[in-house]
Design goal:
Blueprint: E1 3-9, H1 13-27, E2 32-37, H2 44-51, E3 56-59, H3 65-74, E4 81-85, E5 89-90, H4 97-105, E6 109-118, E7 133-135, E8 141-143, E9 146-147, E10 150-151, E11 162-164, E12 171-175, H5 176-181, H6 194-204, E13 208-219, H7 230-247, H8 250-273, H9 278-294, H10 299-307, H11 322-328
Parallel strand pairs: 1-2, 1-4, 2-3, 6-13
Antiparallel strand pairs: 4-12, 5-13, 6-12, 7-8, 9-10, 11-13
Helix pairs in contact: 1-2, 6-7, 7-8, 7-9, 8-9
């Protein structure tokens, strides 16, 4: 099998009923479509068996989360390319061909993504990945088309292929060999930041990640957790710190971690004092506490990742502070950044 589209599902029967028909219509000639189910308790399995008998089902015994759920599912899939696809993605005609053709002709590319637009406003980028992801010096992710909560309208300003640091997990095509050579998604993360962590590890090894806007899909977003959710805040902060610990070069690690200690507590105070959000305030403290407790579980990972490094600097990790550029300099769009 050349391409396997694998949709990880957890209680997403409604999303699959709405968006799976287009995946089958526009993809079946080029790829197998597989749904891996994280022990759903809704009618997902009944829906698939009655309405979509052509879809292969992988049933997992419990909810392993996004990261380990995909790892366990993909171990049962033989394909040259995996395409990790959220159940709340609406694909379009000709969305798959540019991804396959680019991967076929660029052997140095490990992974790629399409342009992600919002289903709610089809002329606007979607928060989760827009037109490709980057990191600043302190580990804050941003995209062509989205910085923090400022999401740009799509006026064709990023309609060209571009090397990126990370591709969105909502629609991520990756070579199976690269996926497993890098160790797959880090199952300990459960959810959030796991695709950034994987792509960063691939970039450290010298493999490229690319956004191909010729391919275009639409994303609902926030399908599992609402935007303001203490568990989401907790996972984002804990996993982001862990990713930094694993992936930053020795020359940057101590400097960045000192600054993040300060910036994280400033963020927590802002959540409490300005937003009156006790849940997110406590989640930041829990995340930092749990990062300290489990950090050394990743020592071997860090040594292995740093040993695989082919260069000190990765161009797609920008060496400025995104907070400074956004809040002090007032640069709210990707094209305005240095």
């Amino acid at each position: 099998m050349k391409v396997a589209i694998v949709i990880l599902n957890w209680n997403g029967a409604g999303m699959m009923a709405q968006y799976l028909p287009a995946v089958l219509r526009y993809s079946q000639d080029e790829a197998a479509v597989i749904v891996a189910d994280n022990a759903s308790t809704d009618n997902s399995m009944a829906l698939l068996r009655t309405e979509f008998p052509e879809v292969k089902i992988i049933e997992l015994e419990k909810n392993w989360g996004f990261a380990e759920g995909y790892n366990k599912a993909l171990r049962q899939v033989e394909a040259d390319y995996y395409l990790l696809l959220n159940s709340d993605i609406e694909v379009t005609h000709h969305w798959l061909t540019p991804l396959i053709e680019y991967m076929d002709t660029h052997n140095d590319v490990a992974a790629c993504q399409p342009k992600l637009l919002s289903i709610a406003d089809r002329d606007q980028f979607e928060y989760a990945g827009a037109s490709g992801g980057f990191l600043d010096r302190y580990g804050y992710p941003f995209c062509r088309g989205r910085i923090f909560d400022t999401v740009e309208r799509d006026n064709g300003q990023y309609n060209y292929p571009c090397d990126i640091l990370w591709a969105t997990g909502a629609a991520l095509m990756v070579r199976s060999a690269d996926y497993w050579d890098a160790g797959g998604l880090d199952g300990r993360f459960f959810a959030h930041n796991e695709e950034i962590d994987l792509c960063w590890r691939l970039r450290i090894c010298g493999r490229r990640i690319v956004c191909l806007p010729e391919s275009q899909v639409y994303h609902v977003g926030g399908g599992t957790l609402p935007k303001s959710n203490p568990m989401k805040t907790y996972l984002n902060f804990r996993n982001n710190l862990t990713m930094l610990y694993k992936c930053l070069p020795d020359s940057e690690l101590n400097h960045v971690m000192r600054w993040r200690w300060l910036l994280d507590y400033v963020a927590a105070c802002e959540m409490l004092l300005l937003k009156r959000n006790w849940g997110d305030f406590r989640a930041v403290f829990r995340a930092r506490r749990d990062f300290r407790r489990w950090r050394h579980q990743f020592d071997d990972d860090r040594r292995r990742i740093q040993a695989s490094r082919v260069g000190e600097k990765i161009p797609e990790q920008r060496m400025f502070s995104l907070l400074w550029q956004y809040y002090v300099k007032g640069r709210k769009t990707f094209s305005a950044l240095p």
